[in-house]
Amino acid sequence: MSVVLEGVSKTFRSNGVKTLVAKNISVEFPARHCVALLGRNGAGKSSLLQMIAGISQPDEGRIVRAGTVSWPVGFAGSFHGDLSGAENTRFVARIYGVDTDELVDYVADFSELGRQFNAPFRTYSSGMRSRVAFAVSMGVQFDTYLVDEVTAVGDARFRDKSEAVLQDRLQNSGAIVVSHSLQMLARLCDMGAVLTGGRLHWHANVMDAIDQHREIMGVPPT
């Protein structure tokens, strides 16, 4: 199931400063492909993912989602601070119509929070929040996963575990992935897109996208 952007434009204003995220972007993220989304810090990658997820809306144009699209994996902004990790998980399970007990058991096991899983979400560190949000996302089947730097959470063992479960989900789903790890993007993705100056440059081969990103960043290609 694909995601299509049609003439999408978006500008953010903060403290009188305008930041261009998207300028008349028209592109199709094809079904069951994993696309690396690259760009400088501040280019708008996370903002673009949030528009694709429906968390924010474009100023112009529209986004057509065929099939189910996840919230940005690892994004914990919609979790209620006074509810525990377990209670937030149950809430998500009811929204998406999945088995509540199965999802709670999966998230408890994967996040490795122990007793903290039943503590209020507002008491969690940022890493703990990301672990729960990632586990909840992986516990629900989506046609397209939106992934934003999630495998940067935790130690090397946890990062490897996170990447492994994401690879498993990609056997039957597509994804749009943001990460500073070019090596991980090369392993996971087959296509790529580079966001710069509000324009999205599409590449059918992920290594071409990585090479363009390296050129923008002034890093020699490998």
The low-confidence parts are: none
Anisotropy-based shape: globular
Radius of gyration: 17 Å
From N to C, what is the helix and strand string?
EEEHEEHHHEHEHEEH
* Mean residue pLDDT: 90
Amount of helix: 25-40%
- The CATH superfamily of the largest domain appears as P-loop containing nucleotide triphosphate hydrolases
Strand order of the largest sheet: 5-6-7-3-8-9
Count all strands and give the number. Answer: 9
Q: How far apart lie the N and C ends?
A: 33 Å
The profile of the biggest β sheet is:
6 strands, mixed
Annotation field: number of helices: 7
What is the CATH class designation of the largest domain?
Answer: Alpha Beta
Structural class: alpha/beta
CATH architecture classification of the largest domain: 3-Layer(aba) Sandwich
Strand content: 25-35%
Number of domains as seen in the coordinates: 2
Q: What is the CATH topology classification name of the largest domain?
A: Rossmann fold
